[in-house]
Every structure is written in C-alpha cells, then in structure tokens.
Automatic annotation (TrEMBL):
Protein name (record): Uncharacterized protein
Species for this entry: Mycobacterium deserti
Domain of life according to the entry: Bacteria
C-alpha cells in the first residue's frame, strides 16, 4: 500500500529500519532514529500492546513533529470502549497486555492528548490507510502553498510601498507567528511600522513574544506600530507589564524613549509602574524627565516626577546624570515659601 502511494515502507519484519549495531546499541535508540528518519509514521493497533511503539515511537513522533496516523482494528477499539468504563482498570483487567493497551488508548484518546484514533476492519484497511494518508498529503500541499505565499510576501516587504491591504493583513499574521523564521517576522514588523496599520492586539502579542529580538524590535518601532494619540493608558500599562515580565532586563530601558515618543505626559504616568531595578533604565528615564522638566511641573505630573526622580537616584553612585537628576529633583520639590502660600 505504501508503495502505491510512492513511499518506501519501513518495518521491523523486513529489517528496513534505522539502526546501529554496537556495544551500546539499544532498540529504544534505533526506534527513535527510525521515527526521525521517516516522513510519515503509521501506528496500527491490532490486539496486542507493543511497549516500544507507545512508550518510545509515539512519544518521539510527538516531540519531533513527524506526521503520524493512528489506526485501530475496529473490534479492538470497541473492546477498549467497553473496558474503559471500568473505574479501576488495574483491578478489572487481569491480562497485563490488555490492561496496558487500554491505558495507552485511554491516554491517546484523553483530553490531554486529544489525538484521533481511526478504526478499521481487515477488509477496509487499505482504503482507510489510503484515505488518511491522502488527508496528510493534502495538508502538506497546503503547507507548501502557504510557505510559497510567505516567501513572496517576504520579498514584497522589502519595499513597503508595494504592500496591499491584503498583504498587510498577511504581514500581521506572519509577525505574530511564533513558529515562523525570526528574520521574516522582523521584516513584517518593520513593514507594519512603516505603514502604520497594526492592530492593538497584534502589538501586544508582539510585546509578549517568546523571541527577545521580536520584543526589542517591537518596542523600538512602537510609535509606528501604535498610532492612537494620545495613547490609551490601558495600552501603556500593558506595555509596561510586558517589559516587567520579560526575561530581557534591557527591555524596560528600550521601552522608556518609545513611551516618551508617543506622549510625554502619558509616558510619565506609565513609567510609575515600570521596574527600575536596572541602572540603564534609571539613567534613561531620568534623562528624559530632565529633558521634559517643564512637563514634569504640570498638574499631577509633578508629584509623579518627584517620585520617579527619587527612584532613579536611589542607591546609585554619584555621576553626571545623577547630579543632573538631583538638581531637577530639587527644583521640582515644593519650597517652604510655596508651602506657606
């Protein structure tokens, strides 16, 4: 059957498996190697439990992303459905092999795995196998087509002006795809920032990316990616939260100038929630506060700015930027005559 589909079947009975014979050889190692070398794994359950199949090969296929199909003889599957009704499988099923098979099928069929088991009978095996393999073949063609579309999009993104509305939608999808190539994702972020059309949800998803480089590029291009002016305070709070929760200790330092680029007053308010444990963040924040000292004097911003300057100079050795920050702090603090007034 596999030959008819253009493939080469590997199985233990024919010896067509990946293996190494040496002093430290093991069936487990050889089984893992075979799965990693395969284009498609087909697990066919008849009546007996194969320990290596379920404890090694299936786990290896799951972990490595190798496509696989699970086929089960209909009589065996119906017996499993009957046996699993027992609350205590260990006590209810004396045969060890059958008990292991029920437990394995139950795990495959459970909410934690949510894998699909396809029943067959002896007369329909070839038809069922062909049908299920054809489904994976179709998925493979779809994936190939999607890859080609992304490659075309990557070329277009080098000239931002060429991107259509549909291209920009695809660029957003590409940018947030955690499994896609980082270089392509960065191209998408830069294109979106240039065209200023990104949704808020996309920006927040990029700020929460597992890729440090994606987070940094998003922060650096925040003013282009997020266009609402003045910015929504809730959005800025989300940005600050993402920086505080990031493993990248320098992300807060990068975020500070981007916040000020959006809006000075909003940035000062948002910075009150920022983790300033990193000295670079304190230095950058104090510098921008000093540059915008007049804004720091207005309304409730004065009190917030005093608090921020105080955090910046706390437990930090004397230096040029520290002296400048302390000078600004003194000017912002209320004097006795102001208190008398």
């Amino acid at each position: 059957m596999t030959n008819e589909l253009g493939g080469e079947p590997w199985h233990y009975l024919s010896g067509q498996i990946s293996y190494q014979n040496k002093a430290t050889a093991s069936w487990v190692t050889n089984s893992k190697s075979t799965v990693n070398s395969a284009d498609l794994c087909v697990f066919a359950i008849l009546a007996d439990y194969g320990e290596i199949t379920w404890t090694v090969e299936l786990q290896q296929a799951l972990g490595s992303g190798i496509p696989f199909i699970i086929l089960c003889l209909d009589d065996t599957y119906q017996e499993y459905l009957t046996l699993k009704r027992y609350v205590d499988v260990d006590a209810a099923i004396s045969d060890l092999g059958k008990r292991n098979l029920v437990q394995t099928l139950s795990e495959i069929d459970s909410m934690s795995r949510q894998l699909t088991i396809v029943p067959f009978n002896m007369d329909s095996f070839v038809e069922v196998y062909r049908r299920e393999a054809a489904k994976l073949f179709a998925l493979g063609l779809d994936a190939l087509a999607a890859r080609a579309r992304k490659e075309s999009l990557a070329m277009l993104m080098q000239d931002h002006a060429q991107l259509t509305t549909q291209d920009l939608v695809a660029a957003e999808e590409l940018a947030v795809d955690e499994f896609e190539e980082k270089a392509w994702r960065k191209l998408a972020i830069q294109a979106l920032a240039h065209r200023e059309t990104t949704s808020v949800d996309t920006v927040l998803a990029l700020l929460s990316s597992r890729e440090q480089g994606i987070q940094r590029l998003t922060v650096d291009n925040l003013a282009g990616l997020y266009r609402q002016r003045p910015p929504d305070p809730a959005f800025l709070d989300d940005c600050v939260r993402s920086a505080n929760e990031s493993d990248d200790v320098g992300l807060a330092r990068r975020l500070i100038p981007s916040l000020f680029e959006l809006d000075v007053a909003s940035a000062i308010r948002a910075a009150a929630g920022l983790d300033l444990s990193e000295i670079g963040a304190r230095r950058r924040l104090s510098g921008l506060l000093a540059e915008n000292e007049n804004a720091c004097r207005t309304d409730e911003l004065r009190e917030i700015s005093i608090e921020l300057f105080s955090k910046c100079v706390l437990k930090t050795e004397e230096s040029g930027w520290i002296r400048r920050a302390k000078d600004c702090l003194e000017r912002l603090k209320p004097h006795d005559e102001e208190a008398d007034d």
